[in-house]
Every structure is written in structure tokens, then in C-alpha cells.
Amino acid sequence: MTHQRYRDLAEWPLMGTALIFLAAYAWQVIGRLEGSGASWLEAVMWATWIVFAVDYAANLWLAPSRWDWFVRNLHELLIVALPFFRPLRLLRLVTLLSVLHRTVGETLRGRVVTYVAGSAGMLIFVGALAVLDVEQSAPDAKIVTFGDALWWAITTITTVGYGDLYPVTPIGRMVAAALMMSGIAVLGVVTASIASWLVQRVEDTAETVAEAVEEPVRAEVAELVAEISALRREIAELKENRTL
């Protein structure tokens, strides 16, 4: 099996695994479960981590140039090698974006909607979960509920930053930095996509107008050609009559 073939086959199962992980992680963080419930959810997340580890090994084995793939995908190694750093494991959810991008179509308008609704929505939700996970039990924490975490994530990704809520732990600040950079990247892609879409719309409109103007002109030219041909025939007939 080729590397690309494996990636095509594994895309949807990995998306399902990522969704299962996200649901279990959100349930554990928001619900603050303890006892058997927490143990069950932890087992689910470990199972999804095993799937991600197997996927990493398969990609490395099937890659045409294993060393190049290894160097270009160091973040994948971090996600697999640091299972105890749970916010980092959330990076595996970028699979959702790649699958969503492939399924919505190739129009510029479709890509804009995808990036805005998919990327921003997922980053806000994941960022809120990650920061709540590390902040809610910290001393002097400002972010202690999921509502606080969502509000903080929205103000952070949009670079507004009111300052009413902020992380106080080192890991929480790392999550904030990652969310800031991701937000800038998403907004940049959206802006570029909108600009490209506007340019395409202007070009399409110009072509439509040119075609609308050209059609009457072509009709008039055809009529003139027909009239000129008729005049030539009449002139030729007059010359023949004079000769006779």
C-alpha cells in the first residue's frame, strides 16, 4: 500500500477517533468527573491515543522518504510521545479541518465558509477546553467555568483581549500563545480567500459585460457584411447590363 493510499483510507476513521477523543475530553473537563466515570473517560482517551500512535507509525513506515517525513512531522511525534500533556494531544484534531476542507467543495466561497465556521469554531472550543483543564484548579485562577473559558477564547482568537480573564499557569499561557498564533493564521487565510474571491468575481463580471457588449456588435457586423455582399452583387449586375 502506498503512503497516499493509506492516508486517504485513514482520513475518515481518524476524524471519527478525533471526535471521540474530543467528546471524552470535553466531558471530563467540563463535568469534572471523579471515580469510575473519570476512569472510563480516561480509558477512552488512552484508546484514541493508541490509534494516533499506530497512525504515526504507519505514516512513518509507508513514507517514501522516512527521514524527511520524520523531520517535517515533528509535531506528530510530540503528540504521540507526550500523552500526559493533554492540551497538546488536542492538536490531532486538525484532522477535522483537512477532512472538512476536502468535503465542502473547491469554490472560494466554500473555502471561506469552511475556514470561518470550521477553523474558528474548533479553535475556540478546543482552546477553551484546554485552558479550562489547566486553569480551573489553579490558585488565584481567573478562568474557572466553561463559560469563562469560551469568552476568553473568543477574545483571544480575535486579538481583542479585554484583560478581564487570563491564564495564570505556565501551560495555560502556552495554550494562550498557541491560540493567538492560530487566530492570526486563520484570519489571514480568511482575508486572503475573501480577496481572491472578490478578484474572481470582478473578473467574471468583466467577462460577462464584455460578452454582453460583443453580441450586439457581432450581430451588427454580420448585418453590415450581408449588406456589403448584396451591394457587390447589385454592382456586378449593373456592370453586366451596361456591357450588354
Highlighted features:
mainly alpha, transmembrane, ion channel, 2 domains, 244 residues, 82% helix, Helix Hairpins, single chain, 0% strand
Record the SSE blueprint.
Elements (H helix, E strand, L loop, with lengths): L2 H29 L4 H27 L3 H7 L1 H8 L4 H4 L4 H10 L4 H28 L10 H12 L12 H74 L1
Subcellular location: Membrane
Organism: Pseudarthrobacter chlorophenolicus (strain ATCC 700700 / DSM 12829 / CIP 107037 / JCM 12360 / KCTC 9906 / NCIMB 13794 / A6)
GO biological process, one term: action potential
Give an overview in words.
The chain is an all-alpha fold. It has 2 domains: 1-103, no CATH class; 106-208, Helix Hairpins (Orthogonal Bundle). The chain is built from 9 helices and no strands. It has helices at residues 3-31, 36-62, 66-72, 74-81, 86-89, 94-103, 108-135, 146-157, 170-243. α7 (108-135) crosses α8 (146-157). This is Ion transport 2 domain protein. It is found in: Membrane. Residues 144-199 form the Potassium channel domain.
Q: Could you write a compact summary of the structure shown?
A:
Keywords: Ion channel, Ion transport, Membrane, Transmembrane, Transmembrane helix, Transport. This protein has 244 residues and is mainly alpha-helical.
